[in-house]
Design brief:
Chain lengths: ~130, ~150
Amino acid sequence: MKLLIVDDSAVIRKVIKAAAGVLSMEAEEAQDGIEALEKLAECHREISLVLLDWNMPEMSGYDVLVEMKKNEKYKDIPVMMVTTESQKTSIVAAIRAGAANYLTKPFTTEELELKIIECIGEEGDY
Amino acid sequence: MTIDLKEELCAVFAGALAEVVSTTTGLALDMVSTMQDDGFGEMVGIMNLNSKNRGLIFISAEEEDVRMLYSCMTGVPVEQVGEDDMSDTLCELVNMTAGSVKLRIKDPDYMFSLSSPFVIRGTDISMVTKKRVPVISRMLRGEKIAVKIKVVYS
Ligand SMILES: [Mg+2]
């Protein structure tokens, strides 16, 4: 079971990757929206969950989400937004666009792990 | 800007920073200084706050303290923290603090959208502003680190 972590911050990617390790999951990383779509093209079959930052250079996480939901190959991969955009309007917009879950930064490791499990189910499912 | 509003914004920004640091690193910070201080630490993370009252947020710390922040966030030993890690930590600290502030700010004139943070580095960096430009300034200190936050509205 593999996560795709999309965030322009290396420190956030590292923190999320460590949490994935605790849950015995592997992780691919992308540092912006364009790289995220490239990674999906390469290995979407292996990806069980995409963790998506909102504010990134080149292409925002929201735009990646919209692209994913338009694409037959990626539209069923669950997406969790992990972002500093914490206002209700942003959360509603992301859920409407097809995000399965939403986690606002800052988060504790425990919150992150719980949210990941919420998205992909308990260990039996992965 | 009235003194009341300045005090309120001060509390909002400094409170958000303390919460972000405590959530991501487990380090508790107390507000120690309310006096006007124009200095910065060796690393300064900056973000432009796009709003009706255009603003800039600065979060700064000494390099050693930024290393400690990264180390506490990731579990990487302090001596293994690299230059890019330090810049990235400060950028993300600014990003998360500004994001948290948006949830706390009540006055719509001071609500803003986030932009891309960046870092400047150097010793003895100081800021000179025009007389009537409101500058909010706080120092936060914990057992292991000290962090300064400044916000300028124009
Ligand atoms: Mg970002």
